[in-house]
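Why do we care about 3D structure at all? Because function follows from shape, and shape follows, mostly, from sequence. That is the central idea of this module. The next example makes it concrete: a single protein chain, its amino acid sequence, and then its structure expressed as tokens.
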Amino acid sequence: MSYQALYRAFRPQRFADVAGQEHLTTTLQNALEQKKFSHAYVFSGPRGTGKTTAAKIMAKAINCEQAPAREPCNQCSACQGIMDGSISDVIEIDAASNNGVDEIRDIRDKVKYAPSAVSYKVYIIDEVHMLSTGAFNALLKTLEEPPQHVLFILATTEPHKIPTTILSRCQRFEFKRMTMESLVARMNYVLQEMNMSADDTALKRIGRAAEGGMRDALSLLDQAISFSDGHVSDEAVMQMTGMASADALFSLVSTLHAGETASLLNTLEDMVSQGKEPQRILEDLIYFFRDVLLYKKAPAMEEFFQVAEAHEPFKEFVQKASEEWILHILHQLNESQNELKWSGNARVMLEVALLRLPAANNDLAVSPTKSQEIPEVQADIVSDLHKKIAALEKELAQVAKRQAAAPSVEAQAPQQKKRVRGQQLKVPTAEIQRMLASAEKKELQQIKNAWADVMEHIKREKISAHATLISSEPVAASEDAFLLAFKYDIHCQMVADNKNQVCDIIEDVLQRILGKTYRLLTVPQKQWQEIREEFIRTQREHSPEQEEADEEPIIAEAKKIVPEEWLEIKS
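And the structure:
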């Protein structure tokens, strides 16, 4: 394959080319120049920020024929060999796929041998947090006392998963997310090298979509170049990433501000028909209102806008919109974004979220510094409300007096409520006793073995039913029925009343999984113990011989060895 992806073709080969990590590269350069580098490093940070790149530059710098130097020369045989992978003394290991003890033991056995082609043997272990506990333990002693000719560089995106015993033996460097300026500057450099151009807004959109990762930014730029014809335009990036244009967002927000519901939904329909994802539209709206608030508080900071454009209509809109309304909209959009993540129909949820937002003529949009006269009709309504409030206050005062005069009634209230609750929860004791008479252990075991799959199916079909059943478990079963015991009475009542069709869902899922139809019975956990003990007592009274026959073999053997009064048998 002759073509290389941009993030590979333009991978930095010197510390000076590593964008946005000057706080790290300067430290490493000084250590190299003074020959005071450590035997082990941990490079941590978000994806695509240059961890593995810096590790390879470090491997070249310590083995360069011009060392000690702040930068590798990239011309000598050592630098060239490390760059093309022909020198076997620089070993890069992916811990995600080589995370066992055997792989680390192999490193520990080979680390004592001197390098064959360069001065230092360098081990770059990527995604080191994926190593198993045994692998970390195998690596521990080697990191503590490595040979003089070995350097370890551990790269990870999740440093909190690395044991502290490993971290304490390494120098730790935190790579940070790239700033927008660093991303745009690097992309402009790549475009100049390729004799291409791009709109500034297009590069900013790519930078925002990359979320601070240089590799992601260059991958998106590579895709945009293929989509464009010599010039990366803002429209091309919007189509490629699914982002909405500033004009479309401004139109959407303007109709929302004016309370024009029909225009709002038509604008949203146009955006969705152009291929914009609902999640992306909502995210862009949040950024747009952020830009509105930023311009309202600091008009001179237009260069920090994410999606908006500071044209005259935008400035007029900012003047009309109140700060309270903007903040309320941002809060509502943020909550809607969380709901949208778990929704099965994102388009409908986005429409509902936008329709719930208040227009500018609502109270939230009224500036507190502007006084408004209340119309006569509203004044009458307010007067009636004041009268009703006064009447309610008077009635509440009378109720308080009656309660003070009769404290015994109040003291009896909890017991009465308890009795009412007890009456509401009706347990089909007789039906459960009949089912227990024909219950079989193999039927119960079959249902228990399948119960995890049953709950998973119910969770996918109806999350509310899954939440109701999470504290329940099968406790008995016959050929045509099974009993479900609930930890909480309210959950038992909900299923018994078949709210949300929970019973139907359970029986349907069991029929699909086990191929048999079971009738569902429900009982609270506490009452189940009482019913079970009563059933066992009745069975013993009617058939003591059957009890001995049905006794578990292990219990019978225990009674032969240990006196019966010493035994405590639990189900």
